[in-house]
Design a protein that fits this description.
The protein is an alpha/beta fold. Helix content is 36%, strand content 26%. A hairpin with a 2-residue loop joins β4 and β5 (63-64). α3 crosses α4 (104-117). It is globular. It starts with a strand and ends with a helix. The mean pLDDT is 89.
């Protein structure tokens, strides 16, 4: 199992947002760090086939990002996820399950599993408009897992989660990363530090760091801030 990104580029007129990024990802958790405007979300949207690149390729094993086979192994939680406020949480997951081709019996069983996994089983039949921000985020995580994805792309997934929920989420992601490819983008360095097998840092559309991190290298957050000090203060 391999996600291969080759010379991926996105350019808007005279501005290059993603600049010839090449990566090869195998099963594990990859933590993507970068300041606002570094290109993280644009990169993720191209990996999910939502945004067409200006150049380069994305393949999962032998499947190109534009194919149905690629989409069938993909789970995605965008930074700003759209909900239907008058749907119940269960109706929402069943609706998305139908779009993903799951039959209703299978979908109900999978939705029940996921509500338990993200600790929303008691809220499954409540309308989404009554959910707190953290509950909506947990529902978003659940929908990303509906099709048991081999490639899971999560853009700021812990936004709105309290510290206890973040710990639960990190444990879930660490477990998923044992057999799947998980790419996780966040501003919360501690989330990356606790669970990422590989740390990726992005600046000005380029990957400036790609590798494992351990205590012998010093403090990850201090290194991150030193790389992005200028952007963070703007």
């Amino acid at each position: 199992m391999e996600l291969r990104i080759n010379q991926l580029k996105k350019q808007y007129k005279n501005r290059t947002v993603v600049d010839n990024v090449s990566l090869c990802l195998s099963p594990g958790v990859y933590g993507l760090l970068g300041a606002n405007g570094a290109g993280k979300t644009t990169l993720m949207r191209m990996l999910c086939g939502i945004l067409q690149p200006s150049g380069g390729t994305v393949r999962f094993d032998r499947y190109d990002v534009t194919t149905e086979e690629y989409r069938s192994v993909l789970g995605y939680l965008p930074q700003d996820f759209g909900y239907y406020p008058d749907f119940t949480g269960m109706d929402f997951l069943l609706y998305l399950s139908a779009l993903k081709g799951l039959d209703r019996t299978q979908a109900k069983r999978r939705a029940a599993e996921l509500f338990q996994l993200v600790s929303l089983e008691e809220q499954a039949n409540r309308k989404i408009k009554t959910y707190s921000g953290g509950m909506k985020q947990r529902l978003g995580i659940a929908q990303a897992l509906l099709n048991r994805p081999k490639l899971l792309v999560l853009d700021e997934p812990t936004a709105g989660l309290d510290p206890k929920e973040r710990v639960r989420f990190r444990e879930l992601i660490a477990a998923l990363g044992k057999e799947n490819i998980v790419l996780l983008s966040t501003h919360i360095v501690s989330d990356i530090e606790h669970i990422a097998d590989i740390v990726l840092m992005m600046k000005d559309g380029r990957i400036i760091y790609n590798g494992a991190w351990d205590d012998s290298r010093g403090d990850l957050e201090a290194f991150y801030l030193s790389q992005f000090e200028e952007e963070e203060t703007q």
